[in-house]
Design goal:
This protein is of the alpha+beta class. The protein has one domain. Helix content is about 20%, strand content about 25%. It has three helices and two strands. It has a two-stranded antiparallel sheet.
C-alpha cells in the first residue's frame, strides 16, 4: 500500500456530530469532568443551548496495517486520542 504524501499536513474543515445525551454524561464521568452542565439534565436544560452539550474536543485516530507478501494483513494498529479543547 502506497502512502499518499499529498495529504500530509492537510487540514479539514470542522464538522458537527450529534451525540446521544447519555454518552455525553458517560464520557464526562470517564474523564473525571464533574461539571453539572454535562451531568445534570436540569442544568443543561437551563443553559443558553436548552440542553446538555458536549464540550469541545477533538478525536485523532491513527491506523496502520502491515501486510505479508500475499497482501494479507498480519498486524493492524489503531490508536485513538481524545483531546479536550
Amino acid at each position: 500500500m502506497q502512502i499518499n504524501k499529498d495529504v500530509k499536513g492537510k487540514e479539514y474543515p470542522p464538522f458537527a456530530v450529534t451525540v446521544e445525551r447519555g454518552k455525553i454524561k458517560e464520557f464526562a464521568r470517564a474523564i473525571g469532568d464533574l461539571n453539572p452542565f454535562y451531568l445534570d439534565d436540569r442544568v443543561g436544560g437551563a443553559s443558553e443551548f436548552g440542553d446538555r452539550k458536549s464540550g469541545p474536543m477533538a478525536f485523532v485516530v491513527r491506523e496502520t496495517s502491515v501486510t505479508d507478501r500475499s497482501n494479507e494483513i498480519v498486524v493492524r494498529i489503531r490508536h485513538t486520542t481524545v483531546v479536550r479543547l
